[in-house]
Design a protein that fits this description.
It comes from marine metagenome. This is OB domain-containing protein. By secondary structure, the chain is α+β, with helices and mostly antiparallel strands. It has two domains: 2-106, Beta Barrel (OB fold (Dihydrolipoamide Acetyltransferase, E2P)), CATH 2.40.50.140; 113-178, no CATH class. Helix content is 20%, strand content 43%. The protein is built from six helices and nine strands, in the order ααβββαββαβαββαβ. A five-stranded antiparallel sheet has the order 3-2-1-4-5. It has a four-stranded mixed sheet with strand order 8-7-6-9, with no helix packed on it.
Length: 179
């Protein structure tokens, strides 16, 4: 439940009906069907189940190859998905899988990389104070400033674990956390 709150996880049906273009889903793999395109590139049609029901997503070659080790039936994943909003007239929206992460990895001690999106430059100090301890996580911070996104990548790794994320989830200036 804490992980759902920290990452602002939605279920698939809520995401489809929302105006949001991107979200993180938490789902369990029910079935994987691998195929090849006419050009011979592999892709998979994966049937997932989440708290809202059952749905299918296409996972294409680059993401499929990168995540083959975690794509097993019964495995729970965090799935970053994006809606294709270019064709508003089409009632079927194309959903692209951007990233897959094993839910088991998230609940372990350290997270390899993370991006925090915060509201104002003034909040950088508050975030700095909360993540000042050195550790094993690469950290990026995205701040909106004068209608532009400023992206900072910390030169030294920080200690970010589920306990720290739990304390961060209640910070009002933190818009989003991406893993």
């Amino acid at each position: 439940k804490d992980i759902f709150d920290i990452y602002k996880i939605q279920n698939f049906n809520s995401f489809i009906s929302s105006t949001s273009n991107e979200t993180i889903l938490a789902a369990t793999i029910m079935k994987i069907q691998e195929k090849k395109t006419q050009k011979g590139n592999p892709f998979a049609i994966i049937k997932f189940s989440d708290l809202g029901g059952v749905f299918e997503l296409f996972v294409f070659s680059e993401i499929l190859d990168r995540n083959r080790d975690i794509l097993n039936e019964g495995k729970s994943l965090l799935i970053t998905v994006v809606k294709d909003i270019s064709n508003q007239a089409n009632r079927f929206k194309r959903i692209s899988v951007r990233k897959l992460v094993s839910l088991g990895e998230i609940s372990k001690h350290s997270i390899p990389k993370i991006t925090f999106e915060i509201e104002e430059v003034d909040n950088l100090k508050k975030l700095k104070d909360l993540i000042s301890e050195r550790g094993d996580t690469n950290v990026k911070i995205v701040v909106q400033y004068n209608s532009k996104n400023l992206i900072f990548e910390l030169s030294e790794k920080r200690k970010i674990n589920p306990e720290i994320l739990k304390s961060l989830k209640n910070e009002p200036y933190l818009k989003r956390i991406n893993i």
